[in-house]
Amino acid sequence: MTRHGSGCSPAVTTADGDDGQRQRQGHRLGAHRPGVDATVFDPGTRLVFNACGDGTVTIVREATPDTLAVLQTLATERGSRTMALDPITHRIYLGAARFEPLPETAPGTARPRPKILSGSFRILVYGPAETPHP
User: pTM for the full model?
Assistant: First the structure.
Protein backbone atom coordinates (compact mmCIF):
# COMPACT_ATOMS: atom_id res chain seq x y z
CA MET A 1 0.00 0.00 0.00
CA THR A 2 1.23 3.49 -0.78
CA ARG A 3 0.98 6.12 1.97
CA HIS A 4 0.97 9.85 1.44
CA GLY A 5 1.70 12.12 4.38
CA SER A 6 0.34 15.58 4.94
CA GLY A 7 0.76 18.06 7.74
CA CYS A 8 -1.84 20.54 8.82
CA SER A 9 -2.08 23.48 11.15
CA PRO A 10 -2.00 23.60 14.06
CA ALA A 11 -0.78 20.11 14.89
CA VAL A 12 -2.08 17.20 12.85
CA THR A 13 -0.36 14.64 10.66
CA THR A 14 -2.40 12.54 8.27
CA ALA A 15 -1.40 9.62 6.09
CA ASP A 16 -3.63 8.63 3.19
CA GLY A 17 -3.41 5.12 1.78
CA ASP A 18 -4.28 4.16 -1.75
CA ASP A 19 -7.04 2.04 -0.22
CA GLY A 20 -8.89 5.24 0.68
CA GLN A 21 -8.19 4.90 4.40
CA ARG A 22 -6.94 7.94 6.29
CA GLN A 23 -4.97 8.09 9.51
CA ARG A 24 -5.38 11.35 11.38
CA GLN A 25 -3.32 11.82 14.48
CA GLY A 26 -2.53 14.83 16.60
CA HIS A 27 1.19 15.56 16.89
CA ARG A 28 2.87 18.84 17.71
CA LEU A 29 4.40 20.00 14.45
CA GLY A 30 6.98 22.73 14.86
CA ALA A 31 8.64 23.87 18.05
CA HIS A 32 7.33 27.41 18.44
CA ARG A 33 4.64 28.29 15.91
CA PRO A 34 2.51 25.28 15.09
CA GLY A 35 1.75 24.83 11.44
CA VAL A 36 3.31 23.09 8.45
CA ASP A 37 4.58 24.69 5.27
CA ALA A 38 5.79 21.55 3.44
CA THR A 39 5.39 17.80 3.91
CA VAL A 40 7.22 14.97 2.13
CA PHE A 41 6.98 11.20 2.56
CA ASP A 42 9.98 8.93 2.02
CA PRO A 43 8.64 5.51 0.99
CA GLY A 44 12.05 3.89 1.50
CA THR A 45 12.29 4.83 5.17
CA ARG A 46 8.54 5.23 5.85
CA LEU A 47 9.27 8.68 7.31
CA VAL A 48 7.12 11.80 6.95
CA PHE A 49 8.97 15.14 7.15
CA ASN A 50 6.95 18.25 8.10
CA ALA A 51 8.85 21.54 7.58
CA CYS A 52 7.68 24.53 9.62
CA GLY A 53 8.65 28.15 9.08
CA ASP A 54 9.70 28.41 12.74
CA GLY A 55 12.94 26.61 11.85
CA THR A 56 12.03 23.00 12.56
CA VAL A 57 11.27 19.79 10.70
CA THR A 58 9.12 17.29 12.60
CA ILE A 59 10.01 13.74 11.56
CA VAL A 60 7.22 11.17 11.92
CA ARG A 61 7.49 7.41 11.35
CA GLU A 62 4.77 5.02 10.40
CA ALA A 63 5.09 2.78 13.50
CA THR A 64 2.36 0.40 12.33
CA PRO A 65 -0.02 0.64 9.37
CA ASP A 66 -2.42 2.51 11.69
CA THR A 67 -0.08 4.47 13.95
CA LEU A 68 2.27 7.41 13.43
CA ALA A 69 4.94 8.37 15.97
CA VAL A 70 7.09 11.52 16.22
CA LEU A 71 10.76 10.54 16.08
CA GLN A 72 12.40 13.96 16.19
CA THR A 73 11.91 17.67 15.88
CA LEU A 74 14.97 18.70 13.88
CA ALA A 75 16.21 22.27 14.34
CA THR A 76 16.86 23.92 10.97
CA GLU A 77 16.68 27.70 10.42
CA ARG A 78 13.81 30.15 10.78
CA GLY A 79 12.05 30.55 7.45
CA SER A 80 13.31 27.21 6.06
CA ARG A 81 9.99 25.84 4.97
CA THR A 82 10.31 24.92 1.30
CA MET A 83 11.47 21.31 1.17
CA ALA A 84 12.34 18.53 -1.27
CA LEU A 85 13.31 14.89 -0.77
CA ASP A 86 15.77 12.69 -2.67
CA PRO A 87 14.20 9.21 -2.30
CA ILE A 88 17.46 7.51 -3.31
CA THR A 89 19.75 9.13 -0.69
CA HIS A 90 16.90 9.83 1.79
CA ARG A 91 18.15 13.41 2.18
CA ILE A 92 15.89 16.41 2.59
CA TYR A 93 16.72 19.83 1.15
CA LEU A 94 15.41 23.12 2.53
CA GLY A 95 15.82 26.63 1.17
CA ALA A 96 17.19 29.05 3.79
CA ALA A 97 18.17 32.70 4.02
CA ARG A 98 18.96 35.32 6.64
CA PHE A 99 16.48 38.12 7.20
CA GLU A 100 16.68 41.80 8.10
CA PRO A 101 15.41 42.67 11.58
CA LEU A 102 11.75 43.62 11.61
CA PRO A 103 11.09 47.31 12.18
CA GLU A 104 9.02 48.37 15.17
CA THR A 105 5.33 48.61 14.38
CA ALA A 106 2.65 50.71 16.00
CA PRO A 107 -0.01 48.87 18.00
CA GLY A 108 -2.82 47.71 15.75
CA THR A 109 -0.60 47.84 12.65
CA ALA A 110 0.10 44.71 10.61
CA ARG A 111 3.63 43.37 10.93
CA PRO A 112 5.49 43.48 7.60
CA ARG A 113 7.15 40.35 6.24
CA PRO A 114 10.90 40.32 6.87
CA LYS A 115 13.17 41.03 3.91
CA ILE A 116 15.85 38.55 2.85
CA LEU A 117 19.43 39.74 3.17
CA SER A 118 21.07 39.89 -0.25
CA GLY A 119 23.39 36.96 -0.96
CA SER A 120 22.25 34.93 2.06
CA PHE A 121 20.20 32.25 0.25
CA ARG A 122 21.48 28.70 0.62
CA ILE A 123 20.26 25.09 0.59
CA LEU A 124 20.33 23.11 3.85
CA VAL A 125 20.85 19.36 3.46
CA TYR A 126 19.92 16.78 6.10
CA GLY A 127 20.21 13.02 5.82
CA PRO A 128 20.18 9.84 7.85
CA ALA A 129 23.13 9.04 10.09
CA GLU A 130 23.39 5.63 8.44
CA THR A 131 21.89 3.90 5.45
CA PRO A 132 18.26 3.05 6.32
CA HIS A 133 17.00 -0.49 6.06
CA PRO A 134 13.38 -0.62 4.88
Answer: 0.71
